[in-house]
Design goal:
This protein is an alpha+beta fold. The chain contains 6 helices and 8 strands; from the N terminus they run αβαββααββαββαβ. It is 26% helix and 30% strand. The chain starts with 8 loop residues before the first helix and ends in a 14-residue tail after the last strand.
């Protein structure tokens, strides 16, 4: 649809606004381990799968990262953010999506996890969808059972001191719980290192944490779909 005249812009704006998908708190994040020696074939297959999404007019955005350093080095991470519960029930042609995945991606992968998270805005600085920056720090925090409320309260108290984009999510399904992850996008490795001046976690949560791991991810634009240009948040 086009709006040929500025005089009818007021009529067009409600239609354009209605076309924008409703934003919600839910994110899907998956980790894939390409088979040894299959990296080239995996990436080619994944790009073919993204072409399926493009031809299906998928309105969702899909981020693709390669793990640069951490215990999952060389793994591939894909994710989609800011969904409502209803939208998760209405992804584009799920049976065809899975069929194309099995054809193009699955033959080149020996491990695949798929998890559902909920964004926690009261603990975060950002809008629930990370900026499409070149680097991303992924911190995974596994808690002692029953410590979720105290952990979240400590992060809520520390939230006003956050200076950079910092997104916290609670795991809902697809892994061991209680688990939280923190995403911190950054344009470069040096800026990520400078962000270390921000305390990784408040002192009072140390007794609540069973395990913490940090991975640094590189954004792969050719293995992503529908991403907006990076913006300051």
């Amino acid at each position: 649809m086009s709006c040929p005249s500025r005089y009818i812009l007021a009529l067009c704006l409600p239609i354009l606004a209605a076309a924008q998908p409703e934003r919600g708190p839910y994110a899907r994040i998956a980790m894939l381990h390409p088979l040894e020696g299959h990296t080239v074939d995996f990436e080619a297959g994944y790009m073919r799968h993204l072409d399926w999404h493009r031809h299906a007019n998928d309105p969702w955005s899909w981020y693709g990262w390669t793990v640069w350093t951490g215990e999952h080095q060389r793994w591939f991470v894909y994710a989609t953010f800011a969904h409502t519960a209803a939208s998760l029930d209405h992804s584009v042609a799920p049976a065809d999506d899975e069929r194309d995945n099995i054809i193009n991606v699955a033959p080149h992968v020996d491990h695949w996890s798929n998890s559902l998270y909920e964004y926690l805005p009261a603990l975060s600085r950002g809008d629930g969808e990370p900026g499409a920056a070149s680097r991303l720090e992924l911190t995974t925090v596994d808690l002692m059972p029953g410590s979720e409320a105290a952990f979240e309260e400590a992060l809520r108290s520390a939230q006003p001191s956050l200076r950079n984009e910092t997104l916290w999510y609670r795991l809902l399904a697809g892994g061991a719980t209680p688990r939280y992850i923190r995403l911190r996008p950054s344009p470069s490795l040096s800026s990520l290192l400078e962000m270390r001046a921000e305390q990784p976690l408040p002192d009072q949560v140390a007794r609540l944490v069973a395990k913490t791991s940090i991975d640094i991810l590189n954004l792969r634009p050719s293995l992503s779909y529908g991403l907006a240009p990076p913006t300051l948040k």
